[in-house]
Amino acid sequence: MSHQEIIQELRQLVRRLRWLNVLQLIPDTLIIYGILQLAFGGQIVTLFNQSFARQQAVLITVLFALIDLCVTGIRYNDRLAGKRLISQLNGRLTTPEAELIKQFERFK
Which helix (H) or strand (E) holds 52? Predict the structure, then answer.
């Protein structure tokens, strides 16, 4: 890969990591919501204005956790891919390229 192709891929990766950070908030919030509803509910738990048996509500909360785990795995793989791309860069970096690498490193 040429230097420019690596920088372009890294730009796309940084953009994707930004979106994944925002996306991660959704399952995180759903997990907290599910746990709170389970903690304060009885045998019938209300999730999103829908009544569920306690076991079903636990299952739904576990599914939220699995979604969260999947998004975390995607973020982890993207960070590994970015590290590999950065390791392929050689030579002098321009100021915007160095700033792009700093932006990527903030996603750790």
Answer: strand 50-53
Other C-beta atoms closer than 10 Å to the C-beta of 13 total 19
What CA–CA distance (Å, rounded) separates 62 from 79? 26
Number of separate helices (H) and strands (E) present in the chain: 3, 2
Residue position matching structure tokens 């599910």 = 34
pLDDT digits (tens, 9 = 90+) for 29-43: 999 999 999 999 889
Q: Return the domain boundaries, the chain.
A: 3-102
DSSP state of 92: P
> Which single residue is written with the structure tokens 């973020």?
75
Which pTM value belongs to this model? Answer: 0.84
Q: 54-93 as b/e, with b when 16 or more CB fall inside 10 Å?
A: eeebeebbeebbebbeebeeebeebbeebeebbeeeeeee
Q: How far apart are CA 21 and CA 70, in angstroms?
A: 13
Q: Which H or E run includes 50?
A: strand 50-53
